[in-house]
Amino acid sequence: MALPAFSGGKNAMIAEEENDPGALEQTLEYNFSPEDRARLRKALTDYARYSDPEHNQIEQKRKAMKESVQARFNYCNKDNDDSLDREEATQCLPQVARHFSYVDVDENEVITLDELELAQAKQIERQKAAEAKIEAQKIQEAETAIKNKSNAKVNKQAVGGRKPPS
Asked: Which is deepest, 13, 93, 108, 166, by most CB within 10 Å?
């Protein structure tokens, strides 16, 4: 029996077993429009959000971190103008002050809480992208190692299978 295609899943396996070439088209990919698939994906995500205890913990940590950033921002905002100038940032948030120009998106020489949160979100995205790049490199290296191992095995068999010249 031939192995089914990964994307076909159980329906492809059934099709292989029953020799029904049309059964592959009965997968989710073919039965639902892109909009329906997006709705299904959202519903599954929402379900996971409400039933996964780890998700709740992550959301609580995010909320606590946001509240912490807001509290620190408000503490540093000595003149209560809902923004931090370079001096306020330098005195209270030195790491933010070092990246003041990057955080000050509208270039008005003050940082708002929205700008600070945006800078944080950008940093998280850059970190995720860097981690994804490293993971992709690891996968590529693993594929190369497997191919090299396979090629070495094939070459060994080819050399071992030859008859010595007579």
From this structure: 93
By three-state DSSP, how is residue 51 classified?
A: helix
**84 phi/psi in degrees, rounded to 5:** -115, 130
Our measurement of the distance from residue 112's CA atom to the centroid of its chain's CA atoms, rounded to an integer in Å, reads 28
Domain positions in the chain are 1-38, 65-153
- pLDDT one-digit tens code per residue, 45-87: 888 777 777 777 888 888 898 898 889 889 988 888 999 999 9
Q: Which helix (H) or strand (E) holds 53?
A: helix 53-76
Tokens of 19: 């020799």
> Alpha-carbon distance 5 to 12, whole Å?
7
- The three-class DSSP label of residue 85 is strand
DSSP for residue 122: H
